[in-house]
Write a structure and sequence with these properties.
By secondary structure, this protein is α/β, with parallel strands linked by helices. The chain folds into three domains: 9-51 and 62-82 and 213-276 and 401-455, FAD/NAD(P)-binding domain, CATH 3.50.50.60; 105-201, no CATH class; 280-395. The chain has helices at residues 17-28, 65-75, 111-121, 128-133, 141-154, 160-167, 171-181, 194-202, 214-226, 264-270, 310-319, 355-368, 385-391, 405-408, 435-454; strands at residues 9-13, 32-37, 47-50, 53-56, 83-85, 91-95, 98-102, 207-209, 230-233, 237-241, 244-247, 252-254, 257-260, 285-292, 302-305, 328-333, 336-343, 379-383, 417-419, 422-424. The strands form five sheets. A seven-stranded mixed β-sheet has the order 7-6-15-16-17-14-18, sandwiched between helices. The longest helix is centred in the last third of the chain and has 20 residues, at 435-454. The protein is globular and about 60 Å long. The structure holds flavin-adenine dinucleotide.
């Protein structure tokens, strides 16, 4: 990595994966970087002890490894993660038309239709990493080529449901793919068309580090520390004024540049303003439930139980009400069981004892044919929307506020630089939200910031 003409002092607000990933990149360029984290480093990814087992909370599926490879290449590090394919890929989707494993295996009756669906996304795999890691600039030929490929593949459809309708897939397959669009935190009607292509694109490329997701956090922390980044854990920022930070406890810190790795609504509040985030335009939050079972669950690694009715689900979530049936993502690994229940982003304290949580658990058990499984747990814990609201989007939206579909895809130029000396990165900024967007967003901000500093302005 080339050194900067002159090193700057950079303050990064938020020590989640985005803040840490960018901190390592900027420190590698010779900048003096400090990360301020109000709670624990890792943000949504943290280790949680439940009885005798440990969970890595937050991200469970590591997709688009090409983005991770691009990050490693920029940093000049070799891969410490030992990514292993997750058995069963995206999991078994329990549609009203019967269970559908994604990717569909060759032995399944839906295989020919799955092949037709995968074919529709065939021109994209080489371009998507470009879209996730390249500044969205029409002056960049690689970006323009990749955008054109995306436009051709989505055929001008704006939303996931619009694109899916046009494909005329069998109802079971269409339902499973549409359910997966919800992984972006949005109903298929609101998610950009690209999300209907994700199961085809990630296909068998669904991974997890051999030592769990926590290995990603360890790696980022290690690289940041090795490059001299000062990690101030338990140190919240209370006010942002220009390039000055007021920290909890009254300390004042000044930097040449600030990068917010916080949700944009949270940053706006620290700057004394606000950004609109009506409930109807938020991605979903979740109640993440974790249990230690007495013995391994008789379940595949990943099961997906969709809401009974997408329209009712969408109406409830957009109104901030608890839907009668929700999306559940179930992971079973040995004696570990985790269930993520999608919930509206209202910051609600949905504890294990909450009647809605209990009702959803019963519905999930019925759909999976494992009645009483949860009750058999030796120990259990829950991270409700209120937990995600404490350090992320104020309503706990997993991927922040949702942009309209025509602005939510990678084609839309994001405001990575908010003001002179103030940049932003992270899940609420880069469309799509998950690990590829977080890592890709760090690469984009590193590129843009480097170019600005070379040009003498940032
Ligand atoms: C249940 C769940 C499941 C998920 N599943 C997947 C998945 O399978 N695959 C995938 O790719 N992604 C998944 N994600 C998304 C992924 O976890 C996030 O995109 C990623 O962790 C976000 O990182 P971040 O750094 O942008 O934000 P965060 O992790 O929210 O980090 C923000 C940090 O800022 C800190 N902070 C807030 N306010 C202040 C302040 N005033 N001063 C200082 N610090 C502050 C917070 O404490 C926090 O540590 C999932 C997320 C959740 C919650």
């Amino acid at each position: 990595m080339k050194g900067e003409p002159s090193s700057r002092s950079v303050g990064i607000l938020g020590g989640g994966l985005a803040g840490l990933a960018l901190a390592a990149l900027l420190a590698g360029r010779g900048h003096r970087v400090t990360v301020y984290e109000r709670d624990r480093l890792g943000g949504k990814l943290r280790r949680l002890q439940v009885g005798a087992v440990t969970f890595d909370t937050g991200p469970s599926l590591f997709t688009f490894p090409a983005v991770w490879q691009a990050y490693l290449a920029r940093l000049g590090e070799s891969d410490p993660l030992d990514l292993r394919p997750l058995p069963g890929g995206l999991g078994v989707h329990h549609t009203p038309h019967g269970p559908v494993p994604l990717p569909v295996p060759p032995t399944h009756a839906l295989w020919p239709e799955w092949q037709r669906y995968v074919q529709a996304a065939a021109p994209l795999p080489t371009h998507l990493p470009t879209l996730l890691t390249t500044p969205p600039r029409l002056t960049d030929p690689a970006f323009v080529r990749a955008s054109a490929a995306l436009w051709r593949a989505t055929g001008g459809h704006l939303t996931a449901s619009g694109w899916l309708r046009a494909q005329r897939l069998p109802p079971a397959l269409a339902h499973a793919v549409a359910t997966h669009a919800l992984n972006a935190g949005l109903s298929p009607q609101d998610a950009p068309a690209l999300y209907a292509l994700i199961p085809a694109l990630v296909g068998r490329e669904v991974y997890r580090p051999a030592r769990g997701m926590g290995a990603l956090l360890d790696a980022l922390k290690g690289w940041a520390t090795a490059r001299g980044v000062v990690l101030r854990e338990g140190q919240g920022v209370e006010v942002v004024r220009g390039s000055t930070l007021q920290l909890a406890g009254g300390e004042v810190a000044c930097h040449d540049l600030l990068v917010s790795a916080l949700d944009p609504a949270r940053l706006a509040a620290l700057r004394g303003g606000s950004v609109p985030s009506p409930v109807a335009r938020r991605t979903v939050s979740g109640a993440a439930l974790y249990a230690e079972l007495p013995q391994p669950a008789p379940l595949p690694a990943t099961s997906v139980v969709p809401p009974h009715d997408f329209a009712v689900f969408r109406r409830c979530v957009r109104a901030g009400a608890l839907p009668p049936s929700t999306l559940a993502l179930v992971h079973a690994e040995g004696r570990r069981l985790s269930v993520l229940l999608a919930a509206p982003a209202t910051g609600a304290p949905l504890t294990l004892a909450h009647s809605w949580v209990q009702a959803q658990i019963r519905q999930v058990e019925a759909a999976l044919g494992v009645p009483g499984l949860w009750r058999s747990a030796r120990a259990a814990a829950a991270l409700p929307p209120a937990h995600y609201a404490a350090g992320g989007h104020p309503g706990g939206a997993l991927y922040g506020a949702a942009l309209p579909p025509w602005r939510g895809g990678p084609l839309h130029p994001q405001p990575y630089q908010l003001a002179p000396g103030l940049w932003q990165v992270g899940t609420g900024v880069h469309p799509g939200g998950g690990l590829p967007a977080v890592l890709g967003g760090a690469l984009i901000v590193d590129t843009l910031l480097h170019a600005k500093l070379q040009a003498g302005s940032a």
